[in-house]
User: Which sequence fits this backbone?
């Protein structure tokens, strides 16, 4: 049930469900509508529980799975009807959804030979993808516009404009991919449970970083600098050089705060790493202050939010704010989103609960 539960709870269906269109998407009274309501109201519902509620028997799993697949397909068909302009999304997040919607629309129109409107959609999209540094979408739009003006519209000036633009974004995209692959190559070891020596990781990160540092000096791409700066942190993390790490985090935060748009991902990542440095440097007061001042950039119930709560809990213990630690542990352990987190996160909070009970 996890995939369907995630789909039901992670997207904002509110405005769509209050619209008359929803009755067409999920006809009232049908099994599909009932299953959606069950999952929406009870996040941890098991297959057996859902089968009992829908079919009167916990063994009706085959019927339930067929229904689940139908509901999943129906919900995926109407994702683009959702409202992504709601409060809580950054302007870059909203732009990303809007640009992807325009891209899908443009590709559908062009495949149906509706070229005038399809090209118009690409050009409208391109203005936003350039501003928000969505390199791949910019490159793809330039590719299709180059083809259109070079082979169909017969406009040499626009053909040259989009040809040059395509080459520019292709070069940036290549640099971004190289940096991202290097970072992923190193971080995948942690994700798979590998325990490579920190010194080896540090040396490999340094070699990787030397290869992409020249790219970062000539290009201020969002994605390039996110991966590149994380690689740079891994060099000093492996050396336990938390003073340098803290300085690099501050530099990264300055870089991303100066972008002409708001994006919470790099702020979440580098504030988190900065607090880790504060813990290691025993600068507990500063760590607590950073978390309090930036609490609004972490959406409650997300993976990053649970990691920050963990740091705040530890900082409260270190500073002997035991009531604060207890309240943090209790609120976090009871949060509905904990059930959807990886095993290691859920196990860690069970251990923290034991710590607080022992301390009490």
Assistant:
């Amino acid at each position: 049930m996890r995939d369907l539960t995630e789909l039901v709870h992670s997207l904002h269906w509110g405005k769509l469900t209050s619209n008359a269109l929803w009755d067409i998407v999920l006809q009232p009274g049908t099994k599909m509508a009932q299953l959606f309501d069950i999952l929406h109201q009870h996040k941890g519902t098991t297959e057996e529980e859902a089968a009992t509620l829908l079919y009167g028997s916990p063994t009706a799993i085959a019927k339930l799975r067929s229904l689940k697949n139908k509901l999943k397909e129906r919900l995926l068909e109407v994702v683009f009807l959702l409202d992504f302009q709601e409060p809580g999304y950054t302007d870059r997040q909203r732009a990303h959804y809007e640009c992807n919607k325009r891209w899908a629309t443009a590709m559908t129109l062009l495949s149906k030979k509706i070229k005038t409107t399809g090209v118009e959609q690409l050009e409208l999209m391109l203005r936003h993808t350039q501003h928000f540094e969505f390199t791949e979408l910019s490159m793809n739009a330039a590719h299709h516009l180059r083809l259109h003006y070079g082979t169909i519209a017969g406009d040499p000036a626009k053909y040259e404009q989009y040809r040059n633009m395509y080459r520019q974004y292709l070069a940036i995209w290549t640099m971004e991919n190289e940096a991202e692959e290097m970072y992923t190559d190193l971080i995948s070891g942690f994700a798979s449970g590998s325990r490579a020596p920190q010194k080896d990781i540090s040396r490999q990160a340094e070699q990787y970083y030397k290869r992409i540092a020249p790219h970062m000096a000539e290009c201020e791409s969002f994605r390039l600098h996110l991966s590149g700066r994380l690689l740079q942190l891994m060099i000093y993390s492996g050396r336990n050089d938390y003073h340098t790490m803290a300085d690099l985090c501050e530099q990264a935060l300055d870089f991303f705060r100066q972008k002409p748009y708001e994006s919470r991902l790099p702020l979440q990542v580098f504030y988190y790493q900065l607090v880790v440095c504060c813990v290691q440097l025993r600068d507990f007061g500063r760590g607590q202050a950073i978390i309090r001042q930036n609490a609004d950039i972490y959406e409650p119930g997300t993976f990053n939010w649970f990691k920050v709560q963990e740091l705040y809990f530890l900082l409260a213990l270190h500073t002997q704010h035991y009531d604060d630690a207890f309240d943090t542990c209790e609120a976090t352990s009871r949060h509905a989103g904990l059930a959807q987190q990886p095993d290691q996160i859920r196990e860690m909070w069970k251990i923290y609960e034991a710590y607080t009970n022992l301390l009490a």
About this structure: The chain has a mean pLDDT of 88.
